[in-house]
Write a structure and sequence with these properties.
By secondary structure, the chain is mainly α. The protein has a domain of 203 residues. Helices cover 51% and strands 5% of the residues. Strands 1-2 form a two-stranded antiparallel ribbon. A hairpin with a 6-residue loop joins strand 4 and strand 5. The N and C termini lie far apart (97 Å). About 11% of the residues have low confidence. This is BZIP domain-containing protein. InterPro entries: DUF3425.
Length: 314
Amino acid sequence: MSRFHDHAKSSRGVPKSWSSGRILTEPQRQQKRNRDRITKERHRNEERKEKEDLKLRSSALEQDVHYLREVLAFSSLQSGPCKCIVSGQRAQGIECGLAVCCTPTNDQSYTLKNFSDQLLRQVHHLTPSQVCLNEPVNQDALIRGILFGWDKVQNGGFWCPLWEIIYQIDTVVFVRSRLLTRICMLRMIHLLLQCFVQTHDFRNIPAWYRPRPSQIIFHHDISADYIAWPGLRERLALTGSRMLTDEFFSYLASGFRFIWKRQISDVYELDAITGLCTLSSLFNESLWDIRNWAMDKEFFEVFPQVYYDFTLSI
């Protein structure tokens, strides 16, 4: 009995062995617990990132499927082949692709221009303290708004006044445009809006998107300032905005094509730590290159006088 008691006492100070048979001291055991906890946390973050990425890819695919159904429904009503752009290139051997086939209107009224002028004018009454200037948060709102729907962003709590502007432009002007068209156009419009809020600081936008001297000297409609191509902006500033009819905006929204040879899911990245979606560096680099901003030939068939305005890069 005494020997058993002595053995029990002596074994109390001996560290317990792991299942592998290895015996660790208490500090070593604590270090291992910390490492295990860090590893598990990293795995959880990776799983969360994969789920979020899958959700985003699924949403983008659903958007394309939805548009394709519209394409098929519309093409069944047409007498001739569709002239859409597929992934930035003209379709060959097929009637249509993932671009939305919508017949541009020939409406010569100025409803969209007047709407845009009134909306964009609001930015000049805002101060930096009233808007979101956090770049990752802004990009996340843009991407999620386009992929998931703006109501999802609105229900998130904070709603920036600049987001309201691009949301309304999206739903009125680009309502039937391709995903890439919406991302490109709204991204650049949003950046320019931020420039005007920050006392006309244009360092954070491409040189070709900065105001031309003619835009500063001559009075013109505000909508002209947000058109990407500098040559066209200069024409509108010098000659007036009679061209900016509803027909023009309709052809602009349907005929624009951004040269991007990758998948839509390559446009954005998901930050596993913050959970925010941001535009990929590759897409941003392509977005900054005016040579990737192109129009379908149907646009120039309707507006041949502006053809060379689109070749002036700076």
